[in-house]
Amino acid sequence: MVALAIQDVAAHTPSWSDQLRLVDSTPVPCAASRETVKRSALVGHAGYGYCKSHHRYFWGLRLYVLAGPDGLPVAWWLATPKLGEREVVAAMLDHERLRLRPGLVILADKGFAGQEFERLVAGYGARLLRPDGKDEPHRFGSLGGWRQWIESTFDTLKDQLSLERHGGRTLPGVVARVAQRLLALTAAIWWNWEIDAPDKRSLIAYDH
Questions:
Q1: Which residues have CB under 8 Å from 160's CB, separation 6+?
Q2: Which letter does DSSP use for residue 131 in this model?
Q3: Closest to 182 (Cα-Cα) out of 157, 162, 160, 164
Q4: Whole-number pLDDT of residue 188
């Protein structure tokens, strides 16, 4: 039900119709100690992964978000860190294929390099943009400013909506708590459009 609410609110937000989508993932830690991992009901679903932005390993899941340029969650998945980013996003795009409009631009990071993945995106009538690799000819540059948009969205989920302190102990519990935070973000972005707030993703007015 929460997932349906996210989709309904997002569909009534102006950025739903934007031709730009951002895609990335972020860790959702579910245990901090080896003993907790051994006892966790998430064994078989969660796993060990590496967080590049914080240069540390974690045990839990990864949250993948396909977002509008203002951070609006258009689609999201939770997956084990054992799966590759391209594998998960390919499955997510396949699930969302009926909502992928021709001419859509999907902005990703270097982890999504590869002709096969680019062809997959093109097969949906969309175009993949990602930073150039060091060994590649110049195409798009670093895309640093645009990449900060999705990073800022994850920062909001973590810092103001306590994504990493979700408290879930079972898979349904983690899914529900992550969905609650995504719904809160979606509702804030929708309302900020309604009141014409300058920063559509800002939650400052609502966190007192």
A1: 203, 207
A2: P
A3: 157
A4: 94
**Three-state secondary structure call for residue 47:** strand
What's the CA gap between 84 and 79, in Å, rounded? 10
Residue 112 predicted with pLDDT over 90: no
What is the band of 54 on the pLDDT scale with cuts at 50, 70, 90?
confident
Locus of tokens 């969660």? 46
List Cβ neighbours of 15 (8 Å cut-off, separation of 6 or more).
Answer: 68, 69, 70, 72, 189, 193, 200
Q: What percent of the chain has pLDDT over 90?
A: 61
CA 140, CA 127: separation in Å to the nearest integer? 12
Q: Are the C-beta atoms of 47 and 37 separated by less than 8 Å?
A: no
25: closest CA among 104, 108, 105?
Answer: 108
- 103 class by beta-carbon count within 10 Å (0-12 exposed, 13-18 middle, 19+ buried): exposed
Token output for 124:
């949906």
Distances (CA, A) of 204 to 33, 190, 195: 33, 15, 14
- Of 23-37, 56-70, 123-137, the least confident: 123-137
Query: Which superfamily, per CATH, for 2-198?
Result: Ribonuclease H-like superfamily/Ribonuclease H (3.30.420.10)
